[in-house]
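ok here's the first one, seq then struct tokens
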Amino acid sequence: MSNFYAFLDRMKYIRRWCIMRSVRDENILEHTGQVALFTHALCEIENTVFGGNVNVERAVLYALYHESSEVITGDLPTPVKYSNGAIESSFHALEDQAVERLSSLLPEALRNAFSSVMNPDKDSKEYLFMKCADKLSAYVKCLEELRSGNREFSKAKETIEAELNGKNIPALAYFMKEFIPEFQLTLDELNV
């Protein structure tokens, strides 16, 4: 018997944005779902609209497991994680150890298959698109909080927006133009 998925199920208890006041709490399991949706969209836009050749399935699998180490490490706030090179390096090493530990919970026959998505190729297009989707998810969270009157997320929105706009990725620009404005609407304003 394996407790791999029982551990991953605990992602629903790990709160994101823990040092910021939020109108609505977000956990890493729901964040993972949104990142997977956005990753799928970005890859399909890249392949369909811009003639790319991103492996959609691989990118979505990267998204599904991109926060898995946090069931062991917790969610370290971005300002802390990237405050200096030593902390960032140490945290990445800790994440790697957490992924190893999680992988060891799998039955032996499945370890290699899962290892390839839990330890993504960080130089791949698939990883790049997943990381863009991760940023998009954070941006949408900022928009949601601001729409609810929470100014706590103002600076985060500006920083993430500048980062997204600074990327030279046509599929990302397409997503930002085509889909992001609708996240600022109320339910009554959305046309079904």
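and now the second one, same deal
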Amino acid sequence: MIRKTPLLAVAIAFGLGGFAGPLAANDYEPQIRSTFENQIKPWLSDPVVVDAVKAQNQSHAGLNDGDIDALDQQWRAEAKAGAGPLIDKVLAHSLSKFLSDKKSSIGAVVTEMFIMDNRGLNVGQSDVTSDYMQGDEAKWQKTYSVGPDAVFVDEVEFDDSTESFQSQISGTVVDPTTGQAIGAITIGINIEELS
């Protein structure tokens, strides 16, 4: 998850008069979608991804809203502290290593990758997100909840942590044997690195 600064304030502060108007994701959407289609989507059916999401869906099937809230609060506290058992568990997962390797292989255009289960909870990630529960956000609601072919490109915003303009693209993770939606992925795209 990225910490965001209002775009107009950033444009003024950096003297980016050309950016003073709203930077809509659709200004960069063809390049963002191309990155997703060509560099992300081909490996979303990898057994490392599919098996990890299916396993977490099964293990989290009995969670109620209170359980999910407690996990999210634990994650937020650990993220603020810089570490903790829940974050460590997710980062130690083979899926997190897989995502970190994919992010590194793509290069500076990708700032983060994380995969969520059928409840919107993180399964694996390349970088620590600010929260554990994404199910109340458009990145999950406009992908997993919509169906197997759903892709959602969010607005471009300035990321304080990387000091770059970014958009997030999210897509549904699908079980290749059934064609059913099982989770979702979100990728942070540094639009300044798009060719």
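notes on #2: The longest helix spans residues 65-81. Residues 4-193 form a domain with the Beta-Lactamase fold (CATH 3.30.450.20).
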